[in-house]
Design goal:
Helices cover 82% and strands 0% of the residues. The protein has 561 residues and is mainly α. Helix 8 crosses helix 11. Keywords: Cell membrane, Membrane, Transmembrane, Transmembrane helix, Transport. One of its GO terms (molecular function) is transmembrane transporter activity.
Length: 561
């Protein structure tokens, strides 16, 4: 009874984080320019002083997860030894994307390659073939191995402590191997509050960006105006739809929508490949994949200390910080849907599959947009620089059946929007319900409404509000990047101990198996020997009996004669 009362009471993490997010939103609503200025200064300071740290730590994350996947640790299962995956590969991959990162593919798939073609990294001249190649390569670089390595570290650690160690689904649970029961005190709560704030602000930013892109698309294909009231209407509609999905739970709500979305995304992708510049896309795919594989190490560890170039800070380092800010959200959700998979399966699904899909998606949509921009048939570049949310629809507008494909694109973004809201409310509910894997519907609704309200208020506040919120969530990434380093130490400690235990168990089972095999061999050999000995003894006994019978028979015959 007492335990039930404890579980039903709002956690201190929920109360404190909700208050802090509320105060932050109030600042953005009442003084958006002040928030924008403060957040911009904070981001500039972080990039200038810790840009090297972001570059180094993300490269280390990629190296770590690849080594982990191919190591003997890869055999260890995220759960009990007899557990098997809860979801099929198709549903699992679909939910990985629908959790939130898929909307990044849709939003930046056209915009980023074109942006880097017009404003290329150091060493390339704008609007040249080399800049186009570099634009595709850097776009893939920002959405392939590195972000998914970041997400996989948090997801793996949390899945391990939840399903292997029976700890609650909290970021702080990862620190249990390092500090023990002290994780239940103020230190653990501080980590969880930071994670909640980073998640909430990051998701609210995505709400705003998704609303911008949906209204931009609708205004491009219909008379619907592209203004803040249309955006807030879209957010309101999506909020009601997400509440319906949230009521269905992960198994029915997010899973069903994710399967639909993966199919819609696949149809749109195949259509653009077929009716677009197919040969150009194929050549871009091969060139981008080869360039990415060849240059990923140098891109990961290249800074510009001898120049005043700000490109790296405003692009690559910005994206690394943004992905780290998303890591608590993505990590908890990935952990929730990955129970029963081995570490090797987990890494293949979370690391390699999205990387391949990133190359295909960006070379298809970004390559098509570059082809149009270079040919001069549509002002894609101007749209990217001024109205980035229209870039995808402008590209589709240059292809056949543009009305249908633009509608599919709006539908795709809308479902991504709903699944992002659903999975975000689930994750935030889990993080503020003492790690429960089934947070109450009311808690999920509270966070859904708070996120929707945050995005709406900041859209109403005009220029500065939404951008400042995004910047603030990225600033929160710095302490979380340090937390992730300790997560790696914690997971290595757990894996090392458990691998030794499992290795002993395997050796013990092997010994038992060999012992049993040898026992059976000895048994068969002894049985054969005993049978032979018994045959020999019986044969001698029978021989004597038969000999005596024959003797008696002969003796009797003589007497009768």
């Amino acid at each position: 009874m007492n335990q039930s009362n404890v579980e039903s009471r709002p956690s201190s993490v929920l109360i404190i984080s909700a208050i802090l997010v509320g105060l932050f939103v109030a600042w953005g609503a009442l003084a958006p320019e002040s928030l924008d200025r403060a957040a911009g200064e904070g981001l500039g300071w972080m990039i200038n002083n810790f840009g090297w740290f972001y570059m180094l730590v993300t490269a280390f994350f990629v190296l770590f997860v690849i080594i982990l996947a191919i190591s003997p640790f890869g055999r260890i299962r995220l759960g009990k030894p007899d557990e098997r995956p809860e979801y099929s590969w198709y549903s699992w991959i679909g939910m990985l994307f629908a959790a939130g990162i898929g909307v990044g593919f849709v939003f930046w798939g056209v915009a980023e390659p074109v942006l880097y073609y017009l404003d290329p990294p150091m060493g390339f001249t704008a609007e040249t073939p080399q800049a186009a190649v570099a634009g595709l390569r850097y776009a893939v670089y920002h959405w392939a191995l590195h972000p998914w390595a970041i997400f996989s570290i948090v997801g793996l650690t949390l899945a391990y402590v939840q399903f292997k160690k029976d700890r609650p689904a909290l970021i702080s649970s990862a620190f249990y191997p390092l500090i023990g029961d002290r994780v239940n005190g103020w230190f653990g709560q501080g980590i969880d509050i930071l994670a909640v704030i980073a998640t909430c602000t990051g998701v609210a930013t995505t709400f705003g960006l998704s609303a911008l892109q949906i209204t931009g698309g609708l205004s491009y294909i219909s008379p619907i105006p592209n203004n803040v009231w249309t955006q807030i209407t879209i957010i309101t509609i999506v909020t009601f739809l997400f509440m319906f999905s949230a009521a269905k739970g992960v198994d029915k709500g997010i899973k069903t929508l994710s399967n639909i979305n993966l199919a819609v995304a696949g149809l749109l992708l195949i259509f653009v490949i077929i009716v677009g510049p197919t040969l150009f896309i194929a050549e871009s795919f091969v060139t981008t994949l080869g360039g990415y594989i060849t240059n990923v190490a140098s891109m990961s560890l290249t800074m510009t200390p001898f120049t005043e170039s700000a490109w790296l800070g405003t692009n690559t380092i910005f994206f690394w910080a943004w992905h780290i800010a998303w890591a608590p959200f993505m990590g908890i959700f990935i952990a929730r849907i990955s129970r029963g998979r081995t570490i090797r399966e987990f890494m293949i699904g979370v690391l390699l599959v999205p990387t391949v899909l990133a190359v295909i998606w960006f070379t298809t949509f970004g390559g098509t947009a570059l082809n149009i921009e270079i040919a001069g048939t549509a002002p894609i570049g101007d749209l990217v620089m001024n109205n980035v949310e229209l870039a995808l629809f402008a590209t589709l507008g240059e292809l056949p059946l543009s009305a249908i494909t633009s509608f599919l694109a709006v539908l795709l973004i809308l479902i991504f929007f709903i699944t992002s809201a659903d999975s975000a409310s689930y994750v935030l509910g889990t993080m503020t319900s003492r790690g429960s894997l089934n947070p109450g519907l009311i808690v999920k609704m509270i966070w859904g409404l708070l996120i929707a309200g945050t995005a709406s208020v900041l859209l109403l506040s005009g220029d500065g509000g939404l951008g400042a919120l995004q910047t603030a969530s990225i600033i929160a990434a710095l302490p979380f990047a340090i937390i992730m380093v300790f997560m790696i130490l914690a997971v290595l400690m757990m894996l090392g101990k458990d691998f030794k235990i499992e290795d002993r168990k395997r050796k013990s089972k092997r010994r038992e198996s060999i012992t049993k095999e040898i026992r059976e061999e000895i048994y068969e050999e002894l049985k054969e020997e005993l049978v032979e000995d018994m045959k020999k003894e019986i044969k001698e006994d029978v021989y004597e009996q038969v000999k005596e019978e024959i003797y008696n028979e002969i003796t009797t015959d003589k007497k009768n004669k």
